[in-house]
Amino acid sequence: MKKITVLLLLIIPGIVLAQKEAKPNINKALTALKSGKLDEAKSIIDAATTYEKTMNDGKTWFYRGVIYGALDTTSSYNATEDLGAVAAASLKKAEELSNGKSATYFVQDNNGGMILYDQAITSISNSYLVKGDKAFNAENFKEALKQFEKGIAFKASKPDTTFYEYAGYAAYNSDERQKTMTYLAKYAELGGRRTQALTMPALLAYEDQNFEAALASAQQVLKIIPNHKDMKAVELNSLIQLKKYDLAAQNLQASVKANPNDAQSLYLLGVLNTELGKMEDAKANFEAALKIQPDYFDAQFNLSNYYLVEIDKTTQAVNALGISAANAKKKQELVQKRVKQSEVAIPYLEKAEKMKIPSKDAEIELLNKLSLLYYYIADDKNNERVTKRLKALGVED
Which of 140, 172, 198 is the last residue of a domain? Predict the structure, then answer.
């Protein structure tokens, strides 16, 4: 029995030793990664995050963030879990455990050189940027957005305007409006100053008829770029849509007073006065804008509309007449009146036609109005001319 007892005493300690948890070596995890042993690197670092002597060490979580980030940006490694999300969460925890000393963390490259914390994060996040850019250029916008979002998460402690700008563009092309607005707003908040990125939220909000958001976004841009033409237009039109006429007038009058030679402010004041039915004031505003900028298409086109309003009134009166003899005579008088009104209006439209027209839609609208006036005065030659141009623009009879 004593022999058996001795054997048992020898066996039992062996069993206890076999069950003892092995200490994971985080440096070996990095060595495995550099040697291409990806599964081994992942296994070691995962074990380190649960081992009592390493689980509360910020360096452990920094290594895990680096390893998972490297695995996520390595095309040859496949995983069912979101490696990028784990990497970002690990780096966040590394920051929390570092007591403000995360900048001292480093890994070694293949030549033994030190890669500091910020450098490691930048290196991996740049891989997301490259992958996202490649997907974007291939018009795989959803994949591009995914990669840019990973870059955003990876650099959460030190946000980068580039990722937010590119994520905004990718979201826009992926028809994700809310993400577009969110990322580009963050881009501006972080100090981004690329005009396209700054103005897009206001333009999209206006397009969506979210005039409160469009107004707020436009006014934010105007604090940075005070004379941005599109933003001034969005601000005014949003105020008009919101029926904040007094505020619109105050803003424009202040702008004109501050800069009397600002043709756009005078033009926009004309637009506001047109909306308010102050046609004579509007006419004066458009004429003043054209004195400053003679090739200002919008001002010229809107000036012509001043005359078109009266033509429309005459046409309505013609159409309202009955077929009696008295009405026939009255109709003839009104038709002649419309001819004279058209002859006054046509030169304003023809002048606009010779200017640089900002869009196809504006050109079509202009030509349609000219065609109608040529019809009123029986100018078949010019009517045929603009009809040909309309057909070339894809407009059928």
Answer: 140
Please tell me the total count of domains within the chain. 2
The angle subtended at Cα 54 by Cα 48 and Cα 57, nearest 5°, is: 120
| Residue 307 counted as domain residue | yes
Instruction: Provide DSSP, 172-230.
Output: HHTT-HHHHHHHHHHHHHTT---HHHHHHHHHHHHHTT-HHHHHHHHHHHHHHSTT-HH
In a domain, 170, yes or no: no
Domain containing residue 123 = 22-140
Q: Is 301 exposed, middle or buried (0-12, 13-18, 19+ CB in 10 A)?
A: buried
Q: The pTM is what? A: 0.70
Per-residue pLDDT of the chain (397 residues; tens, 9 = 90+): 333 333 333 333 443 444 455 678 998 988 888 888 989 999 999 999 999 999 999 999 999 988 988 888 876 778 888 888 898 899 889 889 988 888 888 888 777 778 888 888 888 888 889 999 999 999 999 999 999 999 998 888 889 999 999 999 999 999 999 999 999 999 999 999 999 999 999 999 999 999 999 999 999 999 999 889 999 999 999 999 999 999 999 999 998 998 999 999 999 999 999 999 999 999 999 999 999 999 999 999 999 999 999 999 999 999 998 888 888 889 999 999 999 999 999 999 999 999 999 999 999 999 999 999 999 999 999 999 999 999 999 998 6
Q: Which of these three, 140, 158, 191, is where a domain ends? A: 140
Residue 131 located in a structural domain: yes
In a domain? residue 209: no
